[in-house]
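[job 0417] fold request received: 3'-5' exonuclease
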Amino acid sequence: MTATTRIRVIDLETTGSSPPAHAVCEVGWQNVVLRDDGHWSLDADHGARFVNPGRCIPPVTMAVHHIMDDDVKGAPFWQEVAPSILRPEAGAVALAAHRASFEQRFCTPKLSGNAKWICTWKCALRLWPDSPSFSNQVLRYWRMPDGLDQPKGLPVHRAFPDAYVTAHHLRDQLNEAGLEQLLAWSAEPGLLPRVPYGADRGRYWGELDDEALGRYTSDRNEDVRFSAQKEVENRTGAISPTGAGPVQGRLL
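[job 0417] inference complete; emitting structure tokens
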């Protein structure tokens, strides 16, 4: 297996969401590889490691992942363990995570070797717009991916089980849309199929009148602005610089 046929899915459990005030306390991974028949699948390379965050784990985050200070006592620090996991010896064409922007806060370009990233959340928005939600676990039960071993994907909010579930979404996205398309979608803001909040919450963008739609094009949320602008382009026939406008017309 070569670097160009391997993607490593990463999941982190942390003491909070904002480094350097917060730090990693567990990392999990699962490889997805390209087989000789041209299809992507999970392989046997997976694992998890505790990481010493160098500080106490707050009770509010213990309550999410149930990792305690005694669990990480004596574990290596993130700067020590990250390179070998983010840059495996055999290489990888990309790293992947669900809502990858979170992992990228801790997996800096220096640690990852300037790796490319796939965000399975952003790709799910594009490929499965009718899902009731786009969290890792809702997609798990809405989609019921083939081959997902239920006990292996538990408990939730632990690094390896979450990476394992994400890898099933990634496998199916790769087989449906291809690597280059997933990388392109991941480099853009999230294309939300429905309005996420406010008076129009839950409505598809195509259901809004022009005046309501126009208000969202200046929303403070980047994903909302991007999604509203894509609907404007669909209505006016404009082609976005990325060429994604006509594709979205089909998906939405």
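[job 0417] notes: Confidence is low (pLDDT under 50) at residues 242-252. Residues 205-251 form one domain.
[job 0417] exit 0
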